[in-house]
Every structure is written in C-alpha cells, then in structure tokens.
C-alpha cells in the first residue's frame, strides 16, 4: 500500500478507510496505476436499452432472475458460468453476453442497498476491465481475469448502504445498467471483439474486512447534521464539526457561517456533478470561499452519504478565534467554457475544526484519527534521521492497530520507501522532492506481536526524518 490516494488502497483491504487526502504522499498515482491496473477508472454515458435495441445498436443479451432456492444456483450459458455464490455474496441476477458483444445495457430493479457486482470479460491484445454505470452514475470497474480466482479477486464493484448512488436510484425503483469492456491503458471501449459476463449479488451491509481488520459504517450522533440523506457527523477522529449545509437538489451553491476557534479547518464537500465521470475525467470542481480568503478549488467527488468521512482540504484558520467566518461553496466547471452544471446536482459542505496534532520535523500526525469507521489514538511514535534509511517499531498483539508511516523531506531527487510488517511488504511509495513523503496508513486486524519496518529502498536521503507510529483503538 502506498501513500497517495490512501482510500483506494485501504478499499482493496477493508473497503472502508477514512483518511485525509492532503496528508498523503504526492507523486505515486502512477505507481498505483501500474500495480492496480485492473482497478483503473474510465467513464461513458449510459444508453437507454429500449431505444438502443429498437435502433439495432445493442446486440442481444441473456439474463436470468435469481433462483428461488437458497443458496442460488450457478448460471451457465454457452460454456460460461456466473457463480451462484461468491464467498458470502448471493446471486440476484446474472448476465452473459454473446460472443463479440463487449457492451450490455439493460433494466434492473434493486431489491437491496448492499450489492457487489462480480464480473469477468475477455478481449484481444491487452488488459481489460468491465466499466459499470447505473442510471448514468459511474460506479466502478471490475478487472477481467480468466483464471480460477477471477470471481474472488479484484473483479468486483461494491456498493454499500452509504453509497451516494442510492440517493438518485433508490431500492425498488427500476434503473438502467450499462456494462462495457474497456482497455485499461487507452481507457477506450474494447469494440466488438470482446465479451462480458457478470452477476449482481446481495452482500453484507457492513464493509468487508481485509486481513482481519475491523470496518463498519460509523453511526452518526443524534446532533449530527442531516439533510436529504446526506450526513455530516459531529466528530470524525479528532476533528469536530464547525458547521455544515446541504443545498436543495438542483442548487449549485450553499452558504453558511460559523465562529472561528483559531484551529485549522478541514473542508469536506459532497458534490455529485461528476457522478457520471471517473477520476480521470472530472469536468466540475467546487469553488470554496472561506472568510476573507481568496476562493480555492476542491475536487467535486462523492464517496459516501457519510459526507464528512472522505478526504478534503486542510487550511489555516482564516481569522482569529472568536470572529465570524462566512462560507460560500459553488459548483463550477473545471475548465473555462466547460459544460453547464447538471440540473440534478447535489452539493454539500462540512467545515471541521482540526483536532490536536503531533508535529515531527514539520510533518503532522493527528493524535486521534478514524479508519474503517473506528476511532484510533496515537499510542507510540518512533523517528530516525533520514540518512539512516531504516526505522523499526514493534506492533501490538491481539488487538487491531494502524501503522502510520512516512517521512519529512529527505533531500534531492526521488525516493522509494517500503513498509514491511513481519515478512510481508504492506506498503510501498515513490515520493519526488516536493516537501516529503507525508503520511500513509496501514490497517491491521488482531494477531501476534510483530515488527513494522520502514525502509528507504531507493534514493539517498541527506536529511529529513523517518516516521513510524502505532495507533490503537480509542
């Protein structure tokens, strides 16, 4: 696991890790992209199946209702099989496309708000995935793997009860689903020489737990801010809500105010304007004016209706303690002359007072944080000079824990660091000379005591500080 884009990495293990994007290692998205090719993102609009079939644009597809017995039976057609059960997931409906049919579009009515899409595909010459949209919302890519473990590995898209999709596509209402085979390098559709087969499965409402680490959808306090299904919790880790607001559906601006305490602020927006696009194509941003500061832009994105739990921007307090801060958030095109804001946009913003931080050589570590829906506190901190290239600490026995790891600026050039717990490498990152590695996070379930080792594998540090910290349940 590497330091940039932590949430995607923890999602591979626990599908529920709430971290702060501003703290993560810059410059490693390319590393993630190469090591996680099968989880790449692309986007394409949804085609209405009835109109497309009437026009002769979409080949025929075969689907089956879920078998009545329990457990569901496998669905097999033309030599291909969609399993009735994958782990604890149970098949609701299956589709197997025809040969040379790389795109399916169809109607489906969800009966549960906790689903996993297990998929597979085949195409010529390259690495491929299946890209899914539901009612025009991009919900993810499932990697293609023809091997025996295809259905249990990375070939999945999961939606839990907190998925923002359900705001626009509630359970019991018919939806349009599009599945298309795409090339992971070019992001382009596979064309006619592909085939896709997949199933939509019921799954556990709680996030899956990788390597025994606990994960949950955290409960909201009675005094949390709620509106139209979006929630800003009162506390997240050590951060406390200053104020929040969610605009009415279709409104692209929200305004509110709060009183400063002098603490740094974490800005966490909720924006659906890019719901149809993946992380490589975001035509909209959120413009934030916080008090007298010049407007700053935030990425318009949605992860969960638990809107405060995602990443965001951290800024210094714009005014001294006790003064009023007026806030304006607006959805704007990312580029000049960009497209108009979608008429069904949803926008929210929560401003949090940052909790107490531990500062090491200019790098901040929170005294309390939240990962996988649970609170953790800083219990042990080890440091070493950057030129030492190596730092070791003990891990606790028989309880969940989190390893926070990274470094301040190590010198000139590019550095690659690895984190090993026991004999297993659990983190790897590449950091250019732009202010240090920042902090990455590695979540673990209960187990025997072991040792966590941070090693600078490439590059020659001439300065800076290596950092390894252990967080325990709070």
Describe this structure in words.
The protein is mainly beta. 5% of the residues lie in helices and 44% in strands. It is built from four helices and 34 strands. It has helices spanning 6-13, 29-35, 49-55, 165-168, and strands spanning 61-64, 75-77, 80-82, 85-86, 89-97, 103-108, 115-123, 128-134, 137-143, 156-159, 175-183, 194-202, 225-227, 230-232, 235-236, 239-246, 253-259, 265-271, 284-290, 296-299, 313-315, 324-333, 347-353, 357-360, 363-366, 368-371, 374-385, 390-395, 401-407, 415-421, 424-431, 438-444, 450-458, 465-473. Strands 1, 4, 5, 7, 10 and 12 form a six-stranded antiparallel beta sheet that branches. The longest helix is centred in the N-terminal third of the chain and has 8 residues, at 6-13. The protein is globular, with a radius of gyration of 23 Å. The two termini are 24 Å apart. Residues 1-68 have low confidence and may be disordered.
Could you provide a short overview of the structure?
This protein has 474 residues and is mainly β.
Strand elements, count? 34
Round the Cα radius of gyration to an integer and report it: 23 Å
Shape: globular
Main beta sheet, described? 6 strands, antiparallel
Q: How helical, in percent, are the residues?
A: under 10%
Supply the helix-strand structural class.
mainly beta
Strand content: 35-45%
Low-confidence stretches: 1-68
The CA-CA distance between the termini, in Å, is 24 Å
- Put simply, the count of helices is 4
> Mean pLDDT, rounded to whole units?
82
């Amino acid at each position: 696991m590497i330091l940039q884009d932590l949430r995607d990495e923890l999602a591979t293990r626990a599908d529920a890790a709430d971290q702060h994007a501003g703290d993560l290692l810059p410059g490693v998205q390319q590393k993630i992209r190469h090591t996680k090719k099968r989880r790449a993102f692309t986007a394409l609009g949804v085609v209405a199946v009835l109109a497309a079939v009437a026009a002769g644009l979409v080949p025929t597809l075969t689907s089956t209702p879920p078998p009545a017995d329990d457990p569901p039976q496998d669905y097999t057609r033309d030599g291909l099989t969609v399993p009735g059960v994958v782990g604890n997931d149970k098949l609701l409906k299956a589709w197997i496309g025809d040969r040379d049919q790389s795109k399916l579009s169809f109607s489906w009515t969800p009966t549960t708000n906790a689903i996993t899409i297990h998929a597979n595909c085949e195409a010529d010459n390259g690495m491929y995935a299946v890209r899914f949209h539901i009612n025009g919302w991009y919900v993810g890519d499932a990697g293609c793997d023809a091997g025996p473990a295809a259905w249990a590995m990375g070939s999945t898209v999961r939606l839990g009860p907190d998925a923002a999709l359900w705001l626009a596509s509630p359970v019991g209402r018919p939806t349009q689903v599009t599945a298309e085979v795409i090339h992971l390098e070019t992001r382009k559709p596979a064309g006619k020489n592909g085939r896709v087969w997949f199933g939509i499965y019921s799954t556990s409402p709680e996030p899956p737990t990788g390597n025994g680490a606990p994960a949950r959808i955290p409960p909201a306090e009675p005094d949390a801010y709620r509106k139209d299904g979006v929630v800003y919790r009162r506390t997240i880790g050590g951060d406390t809500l200053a104020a929040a607001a969610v605009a009415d559906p279709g409104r692209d601006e929200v305004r509110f105010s709060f009183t400063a305490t002098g603490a740094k602020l974490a800005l966490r927006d909720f924006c659906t304007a890019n719901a149809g696009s993946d992380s490589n194509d975001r035509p909209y941003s959120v413009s934030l004016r916080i008090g007298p500061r010049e407007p700053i832009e935030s990425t318009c994105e949605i992860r969960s209706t638990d809107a405060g739990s995602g990443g965001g921007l951290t800024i210094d307090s714009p005014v001294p303690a006790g003064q009023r801060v007026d806030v304006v958030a607006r959805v704007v095109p990312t580029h000049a002359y960009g497209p108009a804001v979608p008429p069904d946009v949803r926008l929210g913003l929560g401003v949090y007072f940052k909790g107490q931080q531990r500062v090491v050589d200019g790098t901040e570590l929170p005294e309390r944080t939240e990962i996988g829906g649970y609170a953790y506190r800083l219990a042990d901190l080890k440091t070493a000079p950057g030129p030492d290239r190596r730092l070791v600490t003990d891990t606790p026995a028989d309880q969940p824990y989190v390893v926070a790891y990274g470094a301040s600026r190590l010198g000139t050039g590019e550095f690659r660091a690895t984190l090993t717990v026991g004999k297993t490498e659990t983190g790897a990152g590449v950091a250019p000379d732009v202010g240090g590695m920042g902090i990455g996070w590695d979540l673990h379930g209960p187990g025997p005591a072991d040792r966590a080792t941070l090693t600078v594998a490439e590059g020659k540090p001439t300065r800076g500080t290596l950092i390894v910290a252990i967080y325990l349940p709070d």
